[in-house]
């Protein structure tokens, strides 16, 4: 049963990661491979604050999210001032660089990682409560992205993606919008990281490497960019795959690369055969039904 | 006395080790200049180059020169495939920058995972040892690796710059780089030029990895970090400026090596990311180096915008 | 008399090519200025310089007395400057009406606070914006296509939509870049009418155009540009009659 809960939570967290990444790459049109690093920042911040500084877990989790947001702005602001291409390059450096830092610092536990992370909810309410928490957050994130993409903000994002110069000509600042989207997506990833840390209670740099970038990117590309459910479906499928492989009892040294091959291979195949993904996006922005406006 | 020796030693070692960095930087910068593509798949080609040489030398026990030749052939073949099967298809479809990025990045990752599967995740080198005989000149230690490495690199760069300057193909490459539309009107076959560019880059990459792999250890993901170095050098050197990228690579190599004097060794790797950050924030257009005019009209970066200007055209 | 938009001594060259040569220009409220000249004269470049899309080498631009120098394009738009594009630059993934709605200068619907707690305010804003947008569409004869995609519209209508979008922000100064290029028939007449009405409402308008008839019928005065410099100013009729200018124009 515990094993099942672990899987559900992992899938739920990946849905959050894929959905929040979809916000960045699908709706924001920003290319970045640094998503796992914000997942890591949230996890590490929350873990260290609650374990070594006795900060209550819930606060530590929020702090984790905040650190992810601040870090994402630090990355995006100078890069986007130049261009989107530079964010792309800078994100590679950021992903590799921050992990280097984590591996070399003592208070992050170095390459060995952090253990004994304080639990949350489980002692008082059982594992089921944590599962419900993760699922609730997951649904919340999906709802948030759905709402953002349908409303006035979604319309503005569509316009920005269509033509940035024209976007400026209607008085809108594309750079700030991109930074806001990037910060929101990264913050959500950070919160997911905190949720991860306090359930599994052990985090290490190798869990946040570029393999995760490929995995998340695959989930979004294969699932369907710019759709509400595409990334979720992608996350589900792509979590099912590694689980299926574990039953083959392969040694871990082979398991990792095979997962990597699956993810990257799938993206490449899908990009050429079905670039719209499993759930195709309607590339025309349409408002959510104006039921609220009509009521009253 | 002691200090001068240390400085000279660092300088010498930096120059020697900057050889492969220069080759990687020139390859990346050249492809970017001519095809206007950020070729993140270069890391994949680098990985292929290294492991080919590794297999030939360590598993099949071939002599170094034979392994080198075959490695070059394989690397060129990989570059050929990348251009003809990969990039041409992308160009035909008119895909977005994001698509190209994801594609090239995934190609590199794919190759890395194949390497991980076949070769495992422990460090490898092309020769069984990376220890070379050391000669002392005064008090400076020269590794037996240094001079051959520098010699071949300089020869390769000289050949390349001569090629660009004096051959028709070289001049066509510059033409396509500056103004692809105009070049086509002049009857230049862009497809051929793109292919030649990729092959030259492949050659540099092959040589560079052979040098690196005979001096340092390589993991399946190493090429990604090496490529990042190349990218930083390309940005600092100025996009479109291949010579600038080469110079920047040397300077970065020296600074990175010299940093051992001030920071602990485990942080040296991190220095690169600081460089990247500074490069992007302070030198997005590179350090200003004079641009020469070409046969096909004015140089690229400051061409007047078309009717509707795009923000990227403005400095 | 101080104008709505003042351009003083504006200069710019790219790699030795001079696109603006000490340009002085004033746009008055309620008047339409025609900017004519052969291709490559620097007309669109001037628009780019005024908008801040391109940074000038020298000179200043001010809107209602306040200097715009150093401010980015979107900031200038928020101060009351607006422009249309030679090639429309509409948003293909939005229907016509949404192309206009996204052009307003305040967007309470994008603030979480309003969405959660200010629904009444949102509805009010939305109604005002929609009325305004429908108003423009009505004047242009486009009420029927409000929910269509812009790509489904004929080119002339697309250009009209572009002008409407530029007006959603209550601009004080409007720059129209070749509004008539590729436009004919009903859309042509509608465009003339629309530009007249815009000027009459007090907006300072400047039009770059090759269609001399349009310029002659619509513009209160004209300016002839050649090689980045203003060669002549006066009424459009005078400029057209000048043989030297005609030679410059058609000699190209």
What does this structure look like?
The complex is a heterotrimer of chains A (296), B (315) and C (252). Chain A is mostly helical and 296 residues long. Chain A has helices at residues 2-27, 35-52, 57-82, 84-104, 122-125, 127-150, 152-162, 164-169, 174-200, 210-223, 230-246, 252-273, 291-294. In chain A, helix 1 runs antiparallel to helix 9 (174-200). The model of chain A is unreliable at 290-296 (pLDDT under 50). By secondary structure, chain B is an all-alpha fold. Chain B has one domain: ABC transporter involved in vitamin B12 uptake, BtuC (Orthogonal Bundle). Chain B has helices at 2-35, 42-59, 64-93, 97-119, 146-166, 168-178, 180-185, 190-213, 222-237, 242-258, 268-282; strands spanning 134-137, 140-143. In chain B, strand 1 (134-137) and strand 2 form a beta hairpin. In chain B, helix 1 (2-35) runs parallel beside helix 5 (146-166). Chain C has a six-stranded mixed sheet, with helices on both faces. A four-stranded antiparallel sheet of chain C has the order 2-1-4-5, covered by helices on one side. Chain C has two domains: 1-80 and 172-252, P-loop containing nucleotide triphosphate hydrolases (Rossmann fold, 3-Layer(aba) Sandwich), CATH 3.40.50.300; 93-170, no CATH class. Chain C is α/β, with parallel strands linked by helices and 252 residues long. The radius of gyration of chain C is 19 Å and the shape is globular. In chain C, helix 5 crosses helix 6 (155-167). Chain C has helices at residues 43-51, 73-79, 96-101, 112-117, 119-140, 155-167, 186-200, 212-218, 236-241, 243-251, and strands spanning 5-14, 17-27, 32-36, 58-63, 66-67, 81-83, 173-177, 204-208, 221-226, 229-234. Chains in contact: A-B, A-C, B-C. At the B-C interface, loops of B face helix 1 of C.
How do the helices and strands line up, and which of them pair or pack?
The complex is a heterotrimer of chains A (296), B (315) and C (252).
Chain A (H helix, E strand, L loop, with lengths): L1 H26 L7 H18 L4 H26 L1 H21 L17 H4 L1 H24 L1 H11 L1 H6 L4 H27 L9 H14 L6 H17 L5 H22 L17 H4 L2
Chain B lengths: L1 H34 L6 H18 L4 H30 L3 H23 L14 E4 L2 E4 L2 H21 L1 H11 L1 H6 L4 H24 L8 H16 L4 H17 L9 H15 L33
Helix pairs in contact in B: 1-5, 1-8, 1-9, 1-10, 2-3, 2-4, 2-8, 2-9, 3-8, 5-6, 5-8, 6-8, 9-10, 9-11
Chain C lengths: L4 E10 L2 E11 L4 E5 L6 H9 L6 E6 L2 E2 L5 H7 L1 E3 L12 H6 L10 H6 L1 H22 L14 H13 L5 E5 L8 H15 L3 E5 L3 H7 L2 E6 L2 E6 L1 H6 L1 H9 L1
Parallel strand pairs in C: 3-8, 3-9, 6-7, 7-8
Antiparallel strand pairs in C: 1-2, 1-4, 4-5, 9-10
